[in-house]
Design a protein that fits this description.
Elements lengths: L1 H29 L6 H19 L3 H24 L7 H23 L15 E5 L2 E4 H23 L1 H11 L1 H6 L4 H26 L8 H14 L4 H21 L7 H12 L14
Helix pairs in contact: 1-5, 1-8, 1-9, 1-10, 2-3, 2-4, 2-8, 3-8, 5-6, 6-8, 9-10, 9-11
Length: 290
């Protein structure tokens, strides 16, 4: 029983961490929490649903088209919503992302309706394997583990060795210095939002495969992914994934022992970590001196 709780907790925790990476990428570059992240993933998942249901394309083609849409959506939101802001403050940018969240939710409800829909996903939660006697793991969980590992490795290589990744790191450290060095900061922001939207769309599909698809289905996963990012450290991508794994385990064991506490575990984690260690468990804590 304990082993099964651990496996299931790590699986959902890896999904929290995967979506938390999408949140952390934008924060690393601009120190802004994108509250529209969940709805961006929700709309992208609806695009896949629409292509599968009305055009009957194979899933792999629907997935590719959705990834192109997600990249475009992220870049457009940055270009039309955030870039025009004059002398933006962090609070002002947060309000803009909240406005984008409401807009995307309203558009999804207008286009696809508020009723719940089943999302067809190639990796099933019901299909399981038994690598060890008495311990089962689903196709969905295996997919999450593999995908989270692949994305972590790709992002590490991207930020470490690619020119664009180095430019994004430089923009994170000092935007003015990056401009002086010839880095086009606005393009870096657009790229950041595009990558974040892409990763968020993939994670949202995994969440939809576990539940149902409607305009509100990403609200709770976003809060849990945000809690995972806060727990691990918003400036550390490996920390975000580890924070997601820890939150998944905590939530799963609380849900088993005290089911009534499970919905609020993420909020307790956010409050506790922000009080004790605001930078997170695995991120460096910086103090600005004036």
């Amino acid at each position: 029983m304990i082993e099964q709780l651990i496996i299931e907790g790590l699986a959902i925790g890896a999904c929290y961490g995967l979506f938390g990476i999408a949140v952390a990428i934008i924060y690393k570059t601009s120190e802004v929490i994108n509250f529209a992240q969940g709805e961006m993933g929700m709309v992208a998942t609806f695009i896949t649903y629409h292509i599968l249901t009305f055009y009957h394309y194979p899933f792999w083609l629907a997935f590719i088209l959705t990834m192109i849409f997600a990249i475009t959506l992220g870049a457009l939101i940055e270009f039309f919503f955030l870039r025009p802001a004059k002398d933006p403050t962090v609070l002002g940018l947060l309000v803009i992302t909240l406005g984008a969240e409401m807009l995307l939710m309203g558009l999804a409800g207008w286009k696809w309706g508020a009723e719940q829909k089943a999302f067809v996903f190639p990796l099933s939660v019901q299909v399981t394997y038994e690598p060890i006697k008495g311990l089962t793991i689903s196709q969905w969980a295996l997919g999450v583990f593999v995908l989270a590992l692949i994305i972590m490795v790709l992002l590490f290589l991207f930020f470490k060795y690619s020119r664009l990744g180095i430019a994004m790191r430089a923009t994170q450290q000092n935007q003015n210095a990056a401009r002086i060095m010839g880095i086009k900061v606005e393009r870096v922001f657009s790229l950041t939002w595009a990558i974040s939207s892409l990763i968020g769309a993939v994670a949202a599909m995994f969440f939809a495969a576990r539940s149902v698809l409607d305009p509100n289905f990403m609200m709770e996963p976003f809060m849990r992914a945000f809690a995972a990012a806060v727990l691990g450290g918003l400036t550390s991508i490996p920390g975000v994934v580890l924070g997601g794994l820890m939150l998944g385990l905590i939530e799963n064991f609380f849900g088993y022992a005290w089911p009534e506490w499970k919905p609020i575990v993420a909020f307790i984690v956010i409050i506790f970590i922000l009080t004790v260690r605001p930078s997170g468990l695995f991120a460096k804590h910086y103090v600005k001196k004036v």
